Description:
The protein is mainly beta and about 375 residues long. Helices cover about 10% and strands about 40% of the residues. The protein is globular, with a radius of gyration of 23 Å.
Amino acid sequence: MLRRPFVLALVVIFAGSSTLRAQVQKEIVKKQDDAQKKEIQNVVKVVDDVASGQPAPDDLSIAWAREDILKAQGNKEYVPFTVTIDPTKVAGGKVAFYWRVVAKGGAAPALTEVATSGQKKDDKKDKEKKKADYAYEDVSFVDSTGAPPMRISRSFTVPAGEYDVFVVAKEPAPDKAPKNAPPPKMSVLKHSINVPDYWNGELNTSSVIIAQRIDPLPAPLTDQQRADRPYALGSMEIIPAPDTKFSKKAELSTFMLIYNPKTDSANKPDILVEYNFCQAAAGSEPKQGEPCKAGEKFFNKTNPQNLNAQTLPAEFDLAAGHQLQSGQAVPLASFPEGEYRLEVKITDKIANKSLTRDVNFSVNP
């Protein structure tokens, strides 16, 4: 099978976002527009209300599209995510976009307002104490252009655990609304997510990201660019595929990072990565030695990928923060139309351990 492997790069461990909860306050300080300050307060209150049990409005057809999980620094994980809205329903060309991450099983989110300079000092301390219930929150203002669905990607950084993610998109309120004007449209979404622990020393991988393409970055991004483009990792930027439905003219491109492999005396891993394709076939039974399950038939595989002292760059060093990267770009022209499962098997030869990751996709005319 023809395939195009991605060139292995020395990717320094990803730091993730540095904004955390303070970004909401920093955003207010940066913005001189009183209207935007008011919008921030409004969207925060909207999430407070929904978290307290009030119905979630959905005027903008918001939907959770995907999340991916990678290792960050400081015993935390980095979670870029994407939601979609209908931009044709937005008036004014921008939406206020706010997201809050709350640990499950923790204290219920208290009613929160973003502190402004006019509040008393004790009030500000009280608000900040309540904000400590949140694992993460952030806010931005996004241009709402293009055909639906509009995709908005942002990120958060949290320790391993189970979380609820609250997301709100709200069209701006006019400075002086006409009498009897309808309220601004908004949508609120709640999504639960389980963030694995990549810091426990066990063999693991990031999410297998299905990429539309992977672009090299000619120069480092600014803080604002990184916030708006959360799939920019080091010297490259992944553009995730909008879905897993592909035409026969397309390629299936995958990307993942391999965590916590054991190393030899030269601090080099010895990893084997195998990519096997199984096609859905009702009534089929797996054959001995094949990776497919009941209801599948083996279709094809790529050449195994060896990541070891012979194939890695001489300067590769896990202790220096370099990450072990694997990916393939497989043309789909030879794939019959149908449903498929890509099984990625990762074997750590030094530790004598292996694990698998599955990617489900379809091939269409």
